[in-house]
Amino acid sequence: MAIGFVGIIITIITSVASLAYWLGRKFANIDAKFRSIDRRIEGIERALRGLAFASSEGHKAIIDFLALKGLIERREAEYLSKRVESEFRLHAPNPLTEEELKFLKEFISRAARNVDEVTIEEAERAYELGLRMFTEDFDVKGFLAAIAATYVRGYLVSKEVKEGSRAR
């Protein structure tokens, strides 16, 4: 009877060891597949961030070109600022600090009321903050803020171009 009991125990131990080995190999394969998927996702995220940055910078380049020709009007900059201001009434998590978010909201609000109350430097900072929201969190509000800041900056540059050409 003891020999039979020992035989059963050895069979069980062998079965458990075989099962553990088999499961270990399966889990190793699953881990490898997850690592591969993680690498693919990281690549996709990197590509999306690049596209987000490229689209924002492309838009900025076009607006800068129009601004240098003096073609951006006050109405356009204020309209876009008012449009974006409404988007920022709701707070959502984003990569900005409270101070940065406050600056961005105040900038947009001031530009919506009177675009001549803001500076080119403030518009550039607002663009950078909006761009960061867009490229880091893919938050559409960041894209809208970056576009609005670009238009505001474009208007201010257009205004300087027009005033410079009148002074000549």
Question: What's a quick, concise take on this entry?
Answer:
The protein is mostly helical. Helix content is 85%, strand content 0%. It has helices at residues 2-68, 74-87, 98-113, 120-137, 140-167.
SSE diagram, text form:
Elements: H1 2-68, H2 74-87, H3 98-113, H4 120-137, H5 140-167
Helix pairs in contact: 1-4, 1-5, 2-3, 2-5, 3-4, 4-5
List the defining traits of the structure above.
85% helix, 168 residues, mainly alpha
Q: Could you explain how this protein is built, in words?
A:
It is a single chain. This protein has helices at 2-68, 74-87, 98-113, 120-137, 140-167. By secondary structure, it is mainly α. The chain has one domain. Helix 1 packs antiparallel against helix 4 (120-137). It is rod-shaped, with a radius of gyration of 29 Å. It starts with a helix and ends with a helix. The mean pLDDT is 88.
Sheet with the most strands, sense and barrel status:
none
Order of helices and strands: HHHHH
Number of separate helices:
5
What is the helix content?
over 70%
**Overall number of domains:** 1
Average pLDDT metric: 88
Give the structural class: mainly alpha
Number of strands: 0
Name the shape in a single word: rod-shaped
> Distance N terminus to C terminus?
114 Å
For the CA atoms, what is the radius of gyration? 29 Å
Strand content: under 5%
- The parts where pLDDT drops under 50 for at least 5 residues are none
